[in-house]
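Supplementary notes for students who missed Thursday's class. We covered one full example, reproduced here. Read the sequence, then the structure, then the short commentary at the end.
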Amino acid sequence: MGADEEFVWDEFWVNIGPVWRRVLGGSDTEDPPPAEPIMRRRRLTTDYEWVGTFEPVRWLTSVTEALLWDENGMDLGPLAGRSWDLLQLAGPASNVDLGQLSGTPVRRLILSNVDVVDLADLRGIAGLESLTLAHGDFGPLPPLDELTELVLYAEGEVDLSTARNPGLRVVRHDAIYLPPFGPDELSA
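Structure (token representation):
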């Protein structure tokens, strides 16, 4: 389905593939469940499942909080151009290009077990208030005027010497990172 095509639930369901069908409906059956409960969900998690593509998210327009996992080569294009209250990108993944989210409003961003091409691309993300870093060495954090909270987990490293944000609150956790919600907490 292209961006200009009319959305047809049955076609969407068959074309998203078994992994996304399990993520959205709990089963990889090609028989589509009722669309309404899935389409009105505000939250989405792939629950540690590497999904291969984020394209189905483009059609789930009610989702404002997404916890997404994938392997190398994340195409963030399907996530761009819409408003996010919470967006998690988790891997293991390398060469994650946050520049693809330039101009996209993301209030709270979580990066876990990803190698980011250039953390300076965070400057292009609109309205970024909170950033969580886990499981990786992220390098220098650029100055981000709107960022008020940086959360670092035990296995997350970042260089704060260039951040230069006097209002930035840094929260450090000695524990490993666990997602803020799971598949049982997705109700509309």
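Commentary. The helical segments are 9-15, 17-25, 35-39, 55-59. The beta strands are 43-50, 65-69, 84-96, 106-116, 130-134, 136-140, 149-152, 156-159, 169-172. If anything here is unclear, bring it to office hours.
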